[in-house]
Amino acid sequence: MGSASFLKRAQALLRVRNQLTRECLAELLAVFVLMLITLGGSAQMVTSSGTKGNFLTAYLAGALAVMVAVYTAGGVSGAHLNPAFSFAMCLLEQFPWWKLPIFVAVQTAGAFIAAGAVYALYYDAIQHYSNGTLTTTGPRETASIFATYPADYLSLSNGFLDQVMGTALLIVGVLAILDTRNKGVPKGLEPVAVALLVFSIEVSMGSNCGCPMNPARDFGPRLFTYVAGWGTEVFRWVEGRGARRGVRGVTPCPTVPRPQQGRWVVGGARRDPLPHRVPSPAGAMGGGGCRWWHRCWGPRWARPFTSSSWLSTTRRRRGTPRPSRAAWSSPTPPSPQTPSWHRGRRTPGGMLPQK
């Protein structure tokens, strides 16, 4: 009798009566269960070099994790598990907007905690597999255990399309399963149907990015890898290809030099290197570099200072005569009085004639 009364008092003391708090705790527990099983399957596959698991087993673990998570919190919070699904519910006016940031924060926190639990569970395996070096690239990388990373061949637009289509298919499928006007799933088997939906998407769209359909599932563990020692490289979208594409986006600048057969390509024409400038594409964004970029994409407060009218006004104020049209083709060497910020323009001291 004494133990029974003690349990009743403990239950009354620990019972949470606030509905929002109960929903948040249920969502936190459900996301934790989801990520614990999902990341555990990935860790077993990566650390064993494929001998104790492969992509099929990892995808199956993720799908079954969805089923267990929905059964865990479906009756309390609805088991959103995904900020994208919570956002869709808000758009359909089935979920209040003021709860959206709270659920997103709780879902991200649950994924973060689950990543820490998996790291502690597989700590020895991760250290043994990576030889004590936590990296995001290379044959012994371990960052893919926790977050999704794109394939080497994937472009930015294709990766964006992959994520949009995968997430849209997930939302449409879940809404179709829960719609009572459709041929309904037997009551109590909705989590099984959702798990089969997730598994079908993963095995059909997982090669590009690993199906990052859940922002909380990706950002929470990714943030944990940053804290745990993988470094800022975990936030790079594409290692190497992103940098090359960034440089390629600057190449339309008229003053960005590119090497070609011993000469430099400036604005589409081949010219000899300028004696007063270091021919480096990395320096095109500073000093006397690309004003075209600043006029189009630079900060609004800086655009007036890079326009040709402002430069002409400054030249007249300083008493510098405007060069004639014939001076544009004259091979005059650069003048030492030409300011550094003015040498990027096609003035007699700024660019040599075309060969």
From TrEMBL:
Entry GO MF terms: glycerol channel activity; urea transmembrane transporter activity; water channel activity
Transmembrane annotation, as ranges: 24-46, 58-79, 100-122, 160-178
Keyword tags: Membrane, Transmembrane, Transmembrane helix, Transport
Catalytic reaction annotation: glycerol(in) = glycerol(out); H2O(in) = H2O(out); urea(in) = urea(out)
Principal subcellular localization: membrane
Biased composition (Low complexity): 321-330
Subcellular location: Membrane
Coiled coil segments of this chain: none
GO cellular component, one term: basolateral plasma membrane
Annotated segments matching region Disordered: 311-355
Pfam families to which the protein is assigned, alphabetical: MIP
Membrane topology: Multi-pass membrane protein
Entry's family note: Belongs to the MIP/aquaporin (TC 1.A.8) family.
Protein name: Aquaporin 10
Native source organism of the sequence: Falco tinnunculus (Common kestrel)
